[in-house]
Specification:
The strands form three sheets. Strands 12-11-10-13-14-15-16-17-18 form a nine-stranded mixed sheet, sandwiched between helices. It is elongated. It is of the alpha/beta class. It is built from 19 helices and 18 strands. α9 links the parallel β10 and β11. Helices cover 41% and strands 14% of the residues.
Amino acid sequence: MKLYSAKASQAIDQDAINKANIPGILLMKRAGLFAFQTLEKIWSNAKHIHVVCGTGNNGGDGFIIAQYAVLSGYQVSVSIHGNQQKIQNDALLAFQELTQLGIKPITFNKACLDQADVIVDALFGTGLNQTVTGEFADTIKQINQANKPVLAIDIPSGLSADTGAILGIAVQAQHTCTFITQKLGLYTAQGQETAGKVHFSPLFIPNELYDNHTEVARNHALKYWLNTLPVRLASHHKGVSGTVCLVGGNKTMMGAIQLAGLASLKTGAGLVKVITHNEHGIAITQAIPEVMCYSTDDLTEQAGLANVIGIGPGLGLDDWANRLFNQVMDIPLPKVIDADALKILAKRQQSQLAITNGNWVLTPHPGEAAQLLDCDTQTIQKDRIHAIKQLHKKYGGVIVLKGNGTLIYDGNQMEICLAGNPGMAVGGMGDVLTGTIATFIAQGLSLWNAACLGVSLHAHAGDVLANQSGQPGILPSELASVMSQLLSYSDSPSS
């Protein structure tokens, strides 16, 4: 799936009209028909539909939907918000056709919402780029308080199509019909919880019209990334399965590095070496006999025998942690940096970052990203696309910005993960991801492929657990075993 910005989406729309000679009103009618058919399929028992329209093309889509509903025998009411005199071009034609069917706009009020079985949100489109205030904000508030199912047209009104941030207030839709392109904002930040289930139609636009417009990000199926794994030949042995060195597990956080080690083993690492406090070694090896534990004095030697270093799970921020971090930075191996190691990294001067040459994967959540960029979490979440690009500009390598719609970026390409669920918001999930990505790097995958595969596998495993037993109570330690099972879906003989 390719995901586009609002600007690119509008440009493709115009290309369809000007280059492919598809009349704008025809595109509007295609969009309206798709949305109406979606509404009928989802709410088959609905009788009364209220359409909330703006004065732009999004409102025009709403007028078309109302037409189809009237012609199909539904009770229909339509309210227009904004100066009705501003309705023009295709939207005006759609409005005139609606009035010819005997439907006249009514003043928006609570009663029209109470009488409706379904509310159609056609207030604002993808071009919205400012905070919703005043009468419009009050309208959206009343829609959200009506406790009625909502179908949003193209994008929920008040949601940024580019960032997924709510611009003051946004319609909380159960379903969204979007057209021509998939908008990135529907799938990251607050997009998914605002848009509900997304239904997409390209409106039969020729594929070649998309070629001149660059997408913001892509999403690939898990199987696509699984097929980047190397083939496991009959002569395969542990030495070619990759050796992972994991560093962390401070005094009270032994479990974090243990989870990372478990994940590395479950995702196929040939050898997993954990550098941690001496007193943790026996407990970890008793829990996971396959993990080899070493004291911090052995870091340089054991890392020299590894293919990758993962640092951060349970590392802490004390002198012990800073000393280990400094040692790891001096070792010329690819690295996966997470958790406390990111906080230590954030305190380093720009001149100190050059020694890595960007040979790492950084995996911050929004709070850690804020520390790395010396801002607040709200700033990160307001525009996650800008944030991840700034992270890459400052730190290089591959950046994994975790959260709803996790983003992966290497300076040239961006991937968004659409899997995962809120049940995964529990301590230890990031540690599992660190061990997973480290394993794939150790097995020879590029930083980019390892990060994308790790994120996708991790998220899909969380969805499997949620489907089996519900979201509450998903444990990171359970995730590792499910990831191991999902690896078998590769087309490669490596499974």
